[in-house]
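Methods: example folding runs. The two proteins below were folded one after another, and each record is reproduced exactly as written to the output file, sequence line first and structure-token line second.
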Amino acid sequence: MDWKERRQMVRIAKLYHLENWTQTEIAKKVELSRPVISKILQKAKEIGIVEIYINDETLHTVKLENEIEKKYNLTEAIVASSGTHGAEVVKRRVGQAAASYVSKKIDSLNRIGISWGKSMHAFIDEFPARTGEHVHLVPLIGGMGSNDVYLHSNHLTFHLAQKLNTTSSYLHAPAMVETEDLKESLMQSRDISEVIEEGRTVDLAVVGVGIPSEKATMAEMGYFSPEDIQSLRAGKAIGDMNSQFYNKDGAEIVHTVNNRTIALTLDDLQQIPEVLAVTDGVEKVESLHAALKSGCIDVLVTDDDMAGRLLEQTF
């Protein structure tokens, strides 16, 4: 390419990319055909005269989304930018991203199942008020108690029903009871068993991902004792979804905590057409990795710090 051809290429690229001329307008200006202009613009990119750079924080998150979708064979991954914000702001951003995802597809849903905890609270708190009378909401885990009521599944489900101006079921049971025998007895009640069965028939289940820790929602609400946490760790529990604990391979463990919880199991979640997991906080990265291996999760909403750890870390 001689200097005249290069000069013309730069001129055409400048008109197109910097001055927003159309290819037709440029063709008239330089007296060349439009297909020739298109080829010159393509050539300018190929030889490096034109380099396109997208200056936006979402470019980074889109790349993370694509890589996570491929790594874990997900239908979709949505990554919220955490920037330099604190944990509470990040949780709200993740909740907002989850709320936007569900709101956009609400017209295609008939039943939505809701778990419990801080991530679910952020998701529902950020959910926009809109019409959704055709949708029925179902708690996926027991939700009775006097501590931190705003985090209970029944409260969260009712709150979302108000925003959608629709109906919700009520699961008349706590998330966890004292003994396995008491759970079996409660499950004989039609009021409880029918809502659990309803949960198995939802089109979309929204769940959080947790860890066996003193900071876990169940521990903060008094369902866990320090001995329970030690026992779960000894039993190789690495995390939980819907308060059902699993090991590093994402398989539900055999443990009294699981057996005393009134909730849909991981096997139940696997049968639901779409499970949306909403979580943040890098301390949960191993738990989330195992949850993604379980095959339960179809769509993930998380923050970019967590997404980066999922891709960087060897488990």
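Second run, written to the same file directly after the first:
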Amino acid sequence: MSTHYAWWLAIAFVVLGPVVGALLAGIDRRLTARMQSRQGPPILQPVYDVLKLFEKDTLVVTRLQTLYLWFFLFFMVISGFILFLGSDLLLSLFALTVSGIFLCLAAYSTNSPYSNIGSSRELMLMMAYEPMLILVPLGFYLTTDSFRVADIVAGSPWQVLQLLGILVGFLFVLTIKLRKSPFDLSSSHHGHQELVKGLTTDFSGSDLALVEIAHWYENVILLGWLYLFFAPWGPWLALPIAFALFFVEVLVDNTHARLTWSSTLKATWWVTLLVGVTNLMLLPLVV
């Protein structure tokens, strides 16, 4: 990947990331509706919702919440910028983690019971999925001798088979990152959440719009991570596979009941150990 091309790709992410993320969210909602025998909203409905949020009044409990939400969005953009620039994948992961922490801080700052419980659950979920996420760049490093995204994209076509266990583990925690059932414990896109909206209960107006835009960026970042496993096969083959696996999460969301926090933690750590760590230990034998 040339430096010139990488910079254009990173800038395209900053400018067009919310557009692609909104389309992914719209298709997600439409597929969910069809699975539930409903017509569903227009694919651009997430965009209409955010535009409407900017027109509404913003009820601020504390000015800190808005500051934290801007940092949440900022580090989300930084994470994606690093990823699409072809730079360090591990650094991109750290920025993504810091972004999530700022969202929790914003929820905590409202002093609302629903937001506080949602934030506590979100931190617990981070404890569950972060070990598996760390194994992804480590696996790529062992197969390509580099953390750089550009080197991973130019890696061996066999790397997806060499990292099959890590791919399975990543798909498992992707359900948590996308806040899908059975792991939508801290917040939910659906009406079955006993915490109202959990993390985002006390956000409104432009503050809530910032959260939605950041989630659009996050959708694109996670899709980019998924793409890396198949990237050496070329974009014409890798992109359709990545999109297909991404939308499998919609099927999982609509066919599974929510787990408890303790079951989620145990299941995620077991999956990390059995498929992620085991794959990492066997890599020297297959590379």
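Comment on the second run: The radius of gyration is 19 Å.
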